[in-house]
Amino acid sequence: MSRNVATETVTPVRAELDIAGRRLSYVDFGGPGRPLLALHGHLSEGASFAVVAAGLAPEWRIIAPDQRGHGDSDRAADYSREGYLADILTLLDHLGLDRVAIVGHSLGGINAYHLAARHPERVAALVNADAPVALGLDGESNPLAFLERLPYRAPTREALIEALGEAAPYFTETLRENPDGTWRLPFHPQDMLASEELNRGDHWAAWLATTCPALVIRGTEGSVIPADQAEAMVTRRPNTRLAELPTDHFVYANDPAGFVRAVGDFLASLEFTG
Fold first, then answer.
1. Distance between CA atoms of 57 and 23, rounded to whole angstroms?
2. Residue 254 lies in a domain
3. Does residue 95 sit within a domain?
4. Which pLDDT belongs to residue 8?
5. Distances (CA, A) of 3 to 7, 70, 170, 177, 266
6. Facing residues of 75 across strands?
7. What is the CATH number of the domain that holds 92?
8. Residue 93 has pLDDT above 80, yes or no
9. pLDDT digits over 207-247, tens only?
């Protein structure tokens, strides 16, 4: 059954848990549906899935953490794959969720398929939203290199917006006020640079390690997954299909209707418990 972005009323609740003295914040969009863990990409946060959550309700209840160093979650000592996955498992255990479907965008997609590879019993189905399995192998520069020029905080919101310059429109709506009245980005630029460096490499082994149902969603107008790589991802991994949307890398933000249709149709076609 094909679907459009719905107008279901979802009531997001922000909550947090303590992981060894570090806050992990998450948004639970609620509802009676099956749990769907949503993992955002770099420079984003869990709340970015609000339109998707409304579109997939009431069949699916989206739970979207601010991954370490993003949004309202605290910065971490490292941004290794092990660190990201440990946070996700701690959140699932905290919520009493033994097995879930996962949708992950970019960084979140890489974390999602690595979680499936290392803990296949926890992942019932996987939606890879424009997350490559081979990145940076031909020597291209870090796509987040522009962050080196960005400030992290400023005395006032206005001062931070001014200091961000041309980048300001991308982050104005997500700036955070600190307890001391200063303002900051919802991420630290140096943390993101370090995290992205750890994304770069060959992840084929993790992608091919499991056979749970998977959907790859690729934007045709600026994807970070080359067309030939996307085709190989689908043909080499069993139970995997491809959906292409006429948009760029930010598939769920810039084509929410297409994204909801693709994800909703994929999930509706599955038979699993969790």
1. 28
2. yes
3. yes
4. 66
5. 12, 31, 29, 38, 11
6. none
7. 3.40.50.1820
8. yes
9. 999 999 999 999 999 999 999 999 999 999 999 999 999 99
Q: At what angle do helices 189-199 and 107-118 cross, to 10 degrees?
A: 50
| Strand extents, DSSP E, the chain | 13-19, 22-28, 34-39, 60-65, 100-105, 123-129, 134-135, 153-154, 176-177, 183-184, 201-202, 214-219, 240-245
What is the residue type of 236? Answer: R
Asked whether the CA dihedral 94, 267, 208, 192 is positive or negative, the reply is negative
Residue 257: its pLDDT value, please? 98
Q: Are the beta carbons of 125 and 270 closer than 8 angstroms?
A: yes
Number of compact structural domains in the chain: 1
Q: For residue range 104-151, what is the model confidence (pLDDT) as tens digits?
A: 999 999 999 999 999 999 999 999 999 999 998 877 778 899 999 999
Instruction: Label residue 37 exposed, middle or buried (CB < 10 Å: 0-12, 13-18, 19+).
Output: buried
Residue 104: DSSP 8-state: E
Question: How many C-beta neighbours within 10 Å does residue 215 have?
Answer: 23
- What's the CA gap between 211 and 209, in Å, rounded? 7
pLDDT classification of 271: cutoffs 50, 70, 90: confident
User: pTM for the whole thing?
Assistant: 0.95
Q: Does residue 190 lie within any of the structural domains? A: no
In angstroms, the CA 72 to CA 47 distance is: 10
Residue 215 belongs to what domain range?
Answer: 13-138+201-268
User: Given its phi and psi angles, is residue 31 left (phi above 0), alpha (psi -120 to 50 degrees) or beta?
Assistant: left
